[in-house]
Amino acid sequence: MLKLGVNIDHVATLREARYRGQPQGEPDPVLAAQISEAAGAHGITAHLREDRRHIQDRDIWRLREVVKTRLNLEMANIPAIVTLALKLKPEIVCLVPEKRMEVTTEGGLDVVANRASLAETCRQMRDAGIEVSLFIDPDERQIDASARLGCEFIELHTGQYARQFPDAAGREQELARLTASARQAHALGLRVNAGHGLNYHNLTALHQVPHLVELNIGHSIISRAITVGLGTAVAEMLRLLENYPG
Ligand code: PXP
Question: How far, in Å, is the centroid of ligand 1 from the Cα of 7?
């Protein structure tokens, strides 16, 4: 069965737009995680960025307390966050590249160029009983390098697939690239996740890519929650307006 990891960063982005620097505010990403789990999600993903632009430290510790499925901590391979992850003990970490100016994670990790520091982090995580996934582009050299590091998972970056999806030829080309990468990774003993830019339109075609274990999806699910939930939210507010004495 293909599993779903729900990325709740976007809930925190909305909260921070209004409540940055305050100890609480809405919407609450931890509540979003609980709702996602109650709806059947197989895991919760959160990215504690170095600049703390969305998920805050307090969120990640509360998530560790309440998440009952699998907590996937997305993180850059930098010492302060590695130290925090070793204390937090999520079930799995997904190592991602992180640039301050990007809106979201824009490209995959360069495992080839950063082999030594990634190998050290993988070793530390393994010793702490934490699985490791590497977020990489569907690229033969990156998959080879990931397999040699001895991590359990890779997460194939589907951003290019999502961008090409409206164009039939581009879509087929990206599906072929993802398929070849998933086959290569599986043959090398890696487990294969995928994510970035997946949505209600482009997901079904991805079924043809073999060996996928879990998809990590954030933006489209949180966006859809606004669309399908807005009517209820307006109706609840209207009820509070009732019986105005004027
Ligand atoms: N996987 C990784 C490694 C990511 O960095 C992100 C974006 O935070 C996602 C999955 C989810 O992407 P999206 O929000 O486009 O669904």
Answer: 7
Q: Closest residue (by CA) to atom 1 of ligand 1? A: 195
pTM: 0.96
* pLDDT tens per residue, range 147-158: 999 899 999 999
d(CA 52, CA 184): 35
Specify if 94 maps to a domain.
yes
Q: What percent of the chain lies above the pLDDT cut of 70?
A: 97
Would 114 be classed as within a structural domain? yes
| AA identity, residue 124 | Q
Please check whether residue 246 lies inside any domain of the structure: no
Name the H helices within the chain.
Answer: 9-19, 29-38, 57-66, 79-88, 115-127, 140-149, 159-164, 168-187, 219-241
Tell me, in angstroms, the distance from the centre of ligand 1 to residue 135's CA.
10
Q: 37 catalytic, yes or no? A: no
Q: What is the pLDDT of residues 149-207, one digit of tens each?
A: 989 999 999 999 999 999 999 999 999 999 999 999 999 999 999 999 999 999 999 99
Pocket test for ligand 1, best of 11, 155, 216, 223 (most atoms within 8 A of CB): 216
157 is a catalytic site residue: no
